[in-house]
Amino acid sequence: QRQLVESGGGLVQPGESLTLSCVVSGFNLDYHVIGWFRQASGKEREGVLCISNKEGPVLYADSVKGRFTISRDTAKNTVYLHMNSLKPEDTAVYYCATRWDACGEFHYEYPYWGQGTQVTVSS
């Protein structure tokens, strides 16, 4: 079965950096994409970044442009979300999800999800 497990969340101060990991199993990253999404309290779930072999990185959220990057280590079945210059508005539960072939435009296009990891940015 397809499975995704996020880790690396925690409490950080504004301006600090944090890297999240998404370890996947049951499918190959060569043929599936990984999208990072986040959902803040009281807000809709939004896409952050996506990565695939076909497309390369795809930016969903303008609010993280220049601060967040996505990378992939296929040998380790792991995708990373590198978050720099964190702001309080980045506080959310961060999820990784997968779909076949190419990055989608919306979260409902991703059928398989991890459990999420909490990122809290506060002083």
Roughly how much helix do the residues carry, as a percent range?
A: under 10%
The biggest beta sheet reads: 7 strands, mixed
Shape designation: globular
What is the mean pLDDT? 95
DSSP strand count = 11
**Count of DSSP helices?**
0
Order of helices and strands: EEEEEEEEEEE
As a percent range, the share of strand residues is over 45%
Radius of gyration computed on alpha carbons: 13 Å
- What low-confidence regions span 5 or more consecutive residues with pLDDT below 50? none
Distance between the termini: 40 Å
Structural class: mainly beta
Please name the defining characteristics of this protein:
4-stranded antiparallel beta sheet, 11 strands, globular, 7-stranded mixed beta sheet, 123 residues, single chain, 49% strand, mainly beta
Describe this structure in words.
- The protein is built from no helices and 11 strands.
- Strands 2, 4, 5, 6, 9, 10 and 11 form a 7-stranded mixed beta sheet that branches. Strands 1-3-8-7 form a 4-stranded antiparallel beta sheet, with no helix packed on it.
- The protein is mainly beta.
- The chain has strands spanning 3-7, 10-12, 18-25, 32-39, 46-51, 58-59, 68-73, 78-83, 92-100, 112-113, 117-121.
- A hairpin with a 6-residue loop joins β4 and β5.
- The model has no long low-confidence stretch (mean pLDDT 95).
